[in-house]
Design a protein that fits this description.
alpha/beta, Lysozyme-like, 2 domains, two-stranded antiparallel ribbon, 10% strand
């Protein structure tokens, strides 16, 4: 069984929030040639999307079942749960005696043209497994009278409206509701007789299916830019974006992010230091220029700069040498060189700089 949940929270049946104590399961089929579950639910990447807005997740409808069985987006067969299992569904209508809405969990098998044996067998098997699952959950005996029935059988019992499903379909492929009930019982019996290895294999297969399904999902639109940035910065390799991460993968990604953060913090600090040193050089050079003319100026932080000793000049030009590419071509540098030569106070500037 491939079970996914998408509750129809806008359907009036859901919003009433009446509950039942399940005493049975009623099998329905849709009566329309459309095997896709997305016909009846809004859908998503796994279920497929309903593009016409005619799904059942909207107010004003007088019907709602607990699940649909049909084709998912990848072409496989699965079940989508649409109501809590103990919710009172609107599926059986009213019979002469009462309504199975008060007693039975319901699901619809999405019909196709009713001529495809491959689809029928897959949908039938999914229905058998879903019913076995529900019988196990609620302690129901599928072979007991009135527990597992179809809509037409419900009508004959006086607990449902007069619909033919599923007796207009199953017999075309040599199946009856008695066969269905026996198949459900066989699954329950088989589960009781399973070995530990069989149980482990079932768990492994289910985990592998969930992992593959998650790995195939695309990155949501809201996360695409952030995820692309993480890939570009080497935090993740970009594969399996929606799959669960192992402890090893998590540790590697956290470590990569921490190293990147440290590297970026160090680079930012170095950049800030560079900016401050360059600003200091500019201020000192301005002080030299104005000092040679007997003037004074304010630097960028409002402090007065006076003519400085020769040793400080050497230090300033050493910094200038370190950042010569950043300062290259600045008019102030050329002006200082010219003032230096004209001042006559020194025969030459710091060697190799001016």
């Amino acid at each position: 069984m491939r079970l996914k949940q998408q509750l129809l929270t806008q359907n009036d049946c859901y919003r009433v929030r009446r509950t039942i104590q399940p005493k049975g399961v009623m099998v329905h089929s849709t009566g329309a040639n459309n095997p896709k579950v997305s016909r009846y639910v809004p859908g998503d990447e796994i279920l497929g999307f309903n593009a016409n807005g005619n799904h059942w997740d909207r107010p004003g409808l007088d019907k709602c079942v607990h699940a649909f069985i049909g084709v998912f987006a990848d072409g496989g067969i699965g079940t989508v749960q649409t109501l809590p299992w103990n919710a009172r569904g609107w599926h059986a209508g009213k019979g002469k005696k009462c309504s199975a809405n008060n007693t039975h969990i319901s699901f619809e098998i999405c019909e196709d043209s009713l001529t495809d044996p491959v689809y029928f067998q897959a949908a039938y098997q999914e229905a058998v497994e879903l019913t076995a699952y529900l019988c196990r959950e609620y302690g129901l005996d599928p072979l007991a009278d009135g527990v597992v029935i179809c809509h037409q059988e419900g009508y004959r019992r006086g607990i449902a409206s007069n619909h033919g499903d599923v007796l207009h379909w199953f017999p075309k492929f040599r199946k009856s509701m008695d066969d269905f009930r026996r198949d459900v019982a066989q699954i329950l019996k088989g589960e009781d007789d399973m070995t530990e290895d069989q149980v482990r294999k079932l768990v492994r297969d289910e985990l592998a299916r969930i992992e593959a399904e998650s790995a195939a999902r695309p990155v949501p639109d809201w996360a695409k830019e952030l995820y692309a940035d993480a890939v570009a910065r080497g935090i993740t390799d970009g594969s399996r974006p929606m799959a669960a991460a192992t402890r090893l993968e998590t540790a590697i990604m956290v470590n990569a992010a921490a190293k990147l953060s440290k590297k970026e913090s160090s680079a930012a600090a170095e950049d800030e230091k560079c900016v401050k040193e360059i600003d200091g050089v500019r201020c000192t050079l301005q002080a030299i220029s104005y000092g040679m003319k007997g003037e004074e100026i304010r630097n960028s932080e409002g402090f007065y700069c006076q003519l400085v000793p020769h040793g400080v000049l050497e230090q300033a030009y050493e910094v200038l040498r370190r950042y010569e590419k950043l300062l290259a071509g600045e008019p102030l540098v050329e002006q200082i060189a010219d003032d230096w030569r004209k001042s006559g106070k020194f025969s030459e500037g710091p060697k190799g700089v001016i």
